[in-house]
Description:
By secondary structure, this protein is an all-alpha fold. It has one domain. 52% of the residues lie in helices and 0% in strands. It is elongated, with a radius of gyration of 14 Å. One of its GO terms (cellular component) is membrane. Keywords: Ligase.
Amino acid sequence: FQYLKRFDQGCDLDTFWYEALSVEGSPMECLQLFLLHCGIMDPSWAELRNFTWFLNIQLRDCEASVFCNPDFVQDTLKGF
């Protein structure tokens, strides 16, 4: 949710890191963002769960990768 919210606001995601245990927005706002970005017109709960699970894994791996660390790559992959 934190990434999707900032993506919609046009923020630079290259320097953002997930903040564990922090609460942002309401459950309604979270559900709206998931529905907007999941890519399915009328998703089931299982489809929403799979979308959030997959997105979470991808973002976690991205944060752990040295190649996605802006301090390491500097400006060579800006916006990647």
